[in-house]
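In this supplementary section we document a worked example of the pipeline. Step one takes a protein sequence of length 183 as its only input; no multiple sequence alignment statistics are reported here. Step two produces a three-dimensional model, which step three serialises into structure tokens for compact storage. The input and output of this example are shown verbatim.
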Amino acid sequence: MKKTTFLVAAVLSASLISGRLYAQDSIAQSDLAGTRPVRATASATSSSGAPFINEAAASSVSVRAIKDFKTRFTKAADEKWSLMDKGFCAYFTQDGRKVRAYYDTRGHWQASIKYCDETQLPHFIRDVVRRTYYDLAITFVNIIEVPDHTAYLVHLEDKKTLKIVRVNEDGEMEVMNDLIKLN
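The serialised model returned by step three reads:
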């Protein structure tokens, strides 16, 4: 079970690192499979009144995925769906956070990635990281949720160092990346 959790976290962290490279360029940003999201149209709206996917793409997204999305992410706004090789991805904003939700081809929820800052970390996780890396600033946080597990990728930085630390629900830490900045 630990191997599976670690594998999922490693794959998602690799995708997050590559996805963060385009954080400032919304036009060039794409999902993990390299496809563009389906743009929302005013003709189709979700139950909250927010734009949903266009009618042409609605037939390709699993009804089960849409139903699960609406129940799991009730406060979602500005959702956009994209098709991937092995399922679907929904991009949206929830409580001021950017979130991605991944579904398989049958519409089963696989994972969610929330992009946030230090203030949105659970206090226990923040305390564990701060006690070990008290001299580094927390610049960015990814909260990765998979069925039955949650992992936190904490991006730390100072003048000379960049670190990405994975912390699980029990407070166990693992350094994923440890980089030295060049002057």
